[in-house]
Amino acid sequence: MTTITTRTVEYPADGLTMIGHLALPAGVDRRPAVLLGPEGMGLSDVERRRADALAELGYVALAFDLHGGRYSGDPEEMLARCMPLLADPDRMRHIGHAALDELRTEPRTDPDRIAAIGYGTGGAIALELGRAGVNLRAIGTVNATTTGRPGEAARIRCPVWAGVGSEDPIMPPAQRNAFTAEMQAAGVDWRLAVYGGALHAFHHPPVDHPVVPGVGYHPQHAQRAWRDVVDLLAECLPVTENRGE
Fold it and tell me: Start and end of every Dienelactone hydrolase domain (predicted)?
């Protein structure tokens, strides 16, 4: 296993002091980087471990924060914060840009080789960065087949991969269809993976607090979705990319 280093980073966004988790691969050279967004509950050890796993693969990875260092285990509290956020593309972009700026300040980050991966609310933020025209190599989302303002998907400059559970009541077929129609009309290189029998947040191990209805862990599909994310990065953001140097 590759030796990695990790540290917390603080940066301002959304009127809060965000506390992210930065994972660095071994070595001192510049590497491609991944911005990693959490579900609406906020940054947890699940996302921190994923950032560490990406660093072991050779990426600089920043798991970003949503709630100013807080993890929202109360479903009502989480919805009270996330629903207005999801309805405000500019606010989502602000949170995403702040995290992206923090990732770019890391000397190990190659600023021309960055991808955005997100789950739930974090995935919606990744998509909004794409709709804002940010130079990304790939966007990957799980449980985030969200649509944007008319015409703005045409600004997406990279492939988009989305994964969703077939039984997800929060991202039902009508929502998935609207998302794919938006991507197709914009000429985006898009893919959608539907994981049969999976609910919302199927990728997230069980938690010890109440969750909203329709949420459930599916270990097989969780592993498959992770492999799909890694494959997306290998295709669009290879660690050993030949840049003629």
Answer: 20-235
Asked if pLDDT for residue 242 goes beyond 70, the answer is no
| 101 vs 114: CA distance, rounded Å | 11
Model pLDDT, residue 176: 97
CA distance 51 to 174: 32
- What is the Cα–Cα distance from 184 to 75, expressed in whole angstroms? 34
pLDDT grade for 240, boundaries at 50, 70 and 90: confident
Given strand 60-63, what is the order of strands in its sheet?
5-13, 16-24, 60-63, 31-37, 109-119, 139-142, 160-165, 190-195
Q: Which of 126, 137, 129, 133 is nearest to 235 (CA)?
A: 137
Of the chain, the percentage scoring pLDDT greater than 90 comes to 92
Percent pLDDT > 70 in the chain is: 97
d(CA 142, CA 120): 6
Report which of 28, 20, 29, 38 is spatially closest to residue 85, judged by C-alpha positions. Answer: 38
Is the CB of residue 189 less than 8 Å from the CB of residue 160? Answer: yes
d(CA 135, CA 103): 14
